C-alpha cells in the first residue's frame, strides 16, 4: 500500500506551497470594489512590492500570469520593427523572445544553452557591434526555471555600460523574486517582471511589472489601454489600477504574503533559500558519485536558490516523479523544455518552504532511487543533514 495519504507536498517550481495564512486571508466574502477597505489594502501593497524588488520606481499590477507580465512589459516599450536582444538560458528566455516576435519586434537571440549563465563578454561584443543603437532592449531571465540557471544581472548591466549601449535592461524575475537576491535599482534594471505564485506564495493569477522613468520614456506604439502601465500606477484613479474589476481575493492573499516576507525580513528570506539550496546540493554531490543522476548546473555560483533542475537519464525522470507522487504524496516538477523531457526533473524550493520539508523531499527521492533500483551514491541524507546542522 502506498504511504501517500496525508498532506500532499507540491514541490514544483510554481505554483509554490501556499501558506495557510494566505489561504485564510482569502477565505472571505467579496469586498466592495468601489470604495473602502479594498482600496486602502491595494494602496498598501505598492510600497511593499517595491521593497521586495528593491526599487523606488513604479509597479503596475496585472490580472494574469507571468506571461501577461511579459506582454505588458514589452507592449509598453516596443514599437513595430524594434530590435530586442534576448539572452536565453533556457525555455523561458526563448518564450519571452517569441512573445516579442508576436508583438512585431525583430528578435535577435543569444542562446547560452541549458546549462550556462549569460556570457557577459559575448553580450558586450554583440552590443559593441550595434553601432547605430538598433537594439532597443536587452531581455534577460534572472533564473530560468527550466534549467535552474541563474545569471549575473548586475554584471550584465556593467557589460552593457562597458559597451556604451543605451538599450533598456528588462529582466524576468518570475522564479527568483523573494527567493534569490535581486536589487532592481542598485543593479541598474529598467524593467522587471514577476508573478505572484512563486516566491510571493499566492495562488496564480496576478503579476507585476516594475519600471523606471527611463523605460517609461521609451514608450512605443504597441501599447493598448488595457496594458498601459501609466494608468495602472496612478493611485488617484482606482479603476485604472486594474482596468476593471480588481482581483479581490488575490489582493488579500498577497497582502498576507507580503506581511510574512516583511516579518521574516528580506535578507532572512534570501538566507533561508540559500541554506535550503545548499542542503539539496549536498545531497546531489553524494548521489551523483554513482549512477546517472546529476545537477544540471555544475557551478554553484550559477545555480538558483529557488529551483533545481536534475538530469537522470530517460525515462528515469518520469519514473522517479511518478514513484514519489504515488507512494509518498510528493510531486516533483517535470523536465520542462528539455529533450527527452523524461530524462529530467526539477525540484521547486521557493517561497513557503523550510528545512524539514527539504529533508522530506530528499528522503523521498532517496527512497525512490532505491525502490526503482537506480544506481546512486550512498549517504545523501547524511550530507544534507550535516549541512543543515552546521548551518544552524
Ligand atoms: C513561471 C515562469 C514564467 C511563466 O509564468 P506563468 O505564470 O506560468 O505565465 C516565466 N518565466 C519564469 C522564469 C518562470 O519561472
Please describe what this structure looks like.
This protein is α/β, with parallel strands linked by helices and 392 residues long. It has two domains: 9-16 and 265-391, Aspartate Aminotransferase, domain 1, CATH 3.90.1150; 31-262, Aspartate Aminotransferase, domain 2 (3-Layer(aba) Sandwich). Helix content is 41%, strand content 17%. The chain has 14 helices and 14 strands. The protein has helices spanning 20-26, 37-53, 66-77, 91-102, 120-129, 153-162, 213-216, 229-232, 238-242, 248-264, 266-287, 316-328, 355-371, 380-391; strands spanning 9-11, 58-63, 83-88, 106-111, 135-141, 143-144, 149-150, 168-172, 191-195, 206-211, 294-295, 307-311, 330-334, 344-348. The chain has a seven-stranded mixed sheet with strand order 2-10-9-8-5-3-4, sandwiched between helices. A five-stranded mixed sheet has the order 1-13-14-12-11, with helices on one face. It has a two-stranded antiparallel sheet with strand order 6-7. β3, α4 (91-102) and β4 (106-111) form a beta-alpha-beta unit. The chain starts with 8 loop residues before the first strand and ends with a helix. It binds pyridoxal-5'-phosphate.
Amino acid at each position: 500500500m502506498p504511504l501517500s495519504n496525508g498532506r500532499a507536498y507540491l514541490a514544483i517550481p510554481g505554483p509554490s506551497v501556499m501558506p495557510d495564512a494566505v489561504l485564510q486571508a482569502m477565505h472571505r466574502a467579496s469586498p466592495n470594489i468601489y470604495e473602502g477597505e479594498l482600496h486602502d489594502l491595494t494602496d498598501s501593497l505598492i510600497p511593499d512590492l517595491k521593497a521586495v524588488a528593491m526599487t523606488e520606481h513604479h509597479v503596475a499590477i496585472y490580472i494574469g500570469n507571468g506571461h501577461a507580465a511579459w506582454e505588458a512589459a514589452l507592449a509598453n516599450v516596443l514599437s513595430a520593427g524594434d530590435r530586442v536582444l534576448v539572452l536565453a538560458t533556457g525555455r523561458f528566455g526563448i518564450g519571452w523572445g517569441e512573445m516579442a516576435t508576436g508583438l512585431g519586434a525583430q528578435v535577435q537571440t543569444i542562446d547560452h544553452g541549458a546549462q550556462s549563465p549569460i556570457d557577459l563578454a559575448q553580450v558586450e561584443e554583440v552590443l559593441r557591434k550595434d553601432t547605430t543603437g538598433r537594439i532597443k532592449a536587452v531581455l534577460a531571465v534572472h533564473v530560468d526555471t527550466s534549467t535552474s540557471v541563474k545569471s549575473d544581472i548586475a554584471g550584465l548591466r556593467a557589460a552593457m555600460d562597458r559597451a556604451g549601449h543605451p538599450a533598456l535592461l528588462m529582466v524576468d524575475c518570475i522564479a527568483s523574486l523573494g527567493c534569490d537576491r535581486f536589487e532592481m535599482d542598485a543593479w541598474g534594471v529598467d524593467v522587471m517582471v514577476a508573478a505572484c505564485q512563486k516566491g510571493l506564495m499566492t495562488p496564480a493569477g496576478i503579476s507585476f511589472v516594475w519600471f523606471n522613468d527611463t523605460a517609461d520614456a521609451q514608450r512605443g506604439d504597441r501599447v493598448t489601454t488595457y496594458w498601459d502601465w501609466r494608468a495602472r500606477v496612478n493611485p488617484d484613479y482606482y479603476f485604472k489600477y486594474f482596468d476593471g474589476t480588481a482581483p479581490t481575493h488575490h489582493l488579500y492573499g498577497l497582502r498576507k504574503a507580503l506581511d510574512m516576507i516583511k516579518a521574516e525580513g528580506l535578507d532572512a528570506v534570501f538566507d533561508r533559500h540559500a541554506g535550503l539550496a545548499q542542503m539539496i546540493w549536498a545531497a546531489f554531490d553524494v548521489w551523483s558519485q554513482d549512477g546517472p543522476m546529476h545537477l544540471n548546473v555544475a557551478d554553484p555560483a550559477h545555480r538558483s536558490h529557488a529551483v533545481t533542475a536534475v538530469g537522470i537519464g530517460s525515462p528515469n525522470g518520469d519514473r522517479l516523479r511518478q514513484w514519489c507522487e504515488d507512494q509518498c504524496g510528493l510531486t516533483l516538477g517535470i523536465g520542462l523544455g528539455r529533450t527527452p523531457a523524461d530524462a529530467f526533473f526539477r525540484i521547486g524550493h521557493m517561497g513557503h518552504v523550510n528545512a524539514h520539508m527539504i529533508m522530506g523531499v530528499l528522503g523521498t527521492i532517496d527512497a525512490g532511487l532505491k525502490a526503482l533500483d537506480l544506481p546512486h551514491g550512498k549517504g545523501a541524507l547524511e550530507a544534507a543533514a550535516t549541512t543543515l546542522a552546521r548551518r544552524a
